[in-house]
Structure formats: structure tokens, C-alpha cells
Amino acid sequence: MKARSAQPARRVAVLGIAAIGAVSLLGGCGFETRQQAAAIVNGEVISESDVQQTHDQLKSAKLDFAENIVVTALVAAPLLKDAVSKSGSWQPDETYASVIASIPNATDTTKEFVEAVALIQSQKMTPADVAAYRADLKKADITVNPKYGTVVPSDEGPVYFTIGQKTPNWVKPGTNSAPPTAQ
């Protein structure tokens, strides 16, 4: 009789260990996804592979943007889109269409980048759009892969932040030359 009463306890223990293992594996997947992220904006992952593919597609279309600029625009894109969608002050225009036409098989991420840049360059955001965007930007939970730098807030510019280094890279050789030697 004791052997039978041990069975349910053993089954519960095995199920418990299996559940812990499953949670660990699922948690590991989230960690791996975050490790492969260029940035995370309000829980939405911008993958490094998407940034690289967008960078490559832009480069093949003779549009030279540094990867940290691609990440900056992709971080700002959903916040900008939300801000102008309320007022309808901007819709994809001929600039957007022209650039997308020059990129064969543009990915959705590349289209988001081009849309954000076209919106910014159009200068059609109303003061209310800008205020809504800046409020959303302040509330946004933004994490950037250190490979690209950090979010540097700014009171200027169309996106009001940059992604890069906050302090100069002192390891990189500077432009200062050695003082002249006396002869």
C-alpha cells in the first residue's frame, strides 16, 4: 500500500521538474532573442539581422546610412507613425515611393526605415504631432545593443535623440599631432 501512495508524489515531482525545465528553456529563448536584438522598443525587438539587411538594401540602392542611423530610425519609426496617424498630417508620399521603387524586394524593416526618414524629411509634422511623439518618446522603454551605442537624448533634431557614444572614444587615435620638436 505504501508503494501506491508514493506513486502520486513521484508523479507530481516529475511533473514539477518537467515544468521547471520547460520554463527554463522558454526563458532561455527570450534571452537569446534579446542577445540578437539591435534594439527593443516597448517590448518589440528590432533584430540585428533586420538592421544588417536594411543597411545592405540601402547601400545597394546607393543610400549610405551608418548602422547606428538605421537603428535610430527604426527605434523612432513606430513612435513617429503613431504620432502622425492621429492627425493624418503625413502619408507615404512620392519620396517614399521613389526610394522604395529603387530597392528591389525591400523588406518590411527597410520600408519602415524609409517611411521614418521620408516623414522626417517632409517636415509635415504638426506641433501637436511633435508634442505627441516627444511624450511617447519619454515614456518609451528603449534598450539598445551596446554595439550601436546608447540612446543620447537631445532637445534638437527631428527625432530628439541619437544612438551613439555619450563620451568620446579615447582609444581611437585623435587628430592632435605631437608638438613640434625644437631643433
From TrEMBL:
<protein>
    <recommendedName>
        <fullName>SurA-like protein</fullName>
    </recommendedName>
</protein>
<dbReference type="InterPro" id="IPR027304">
    <property type="entry name" value="Trigger_fact/SurA_dom_sf"/>
</dbReference>
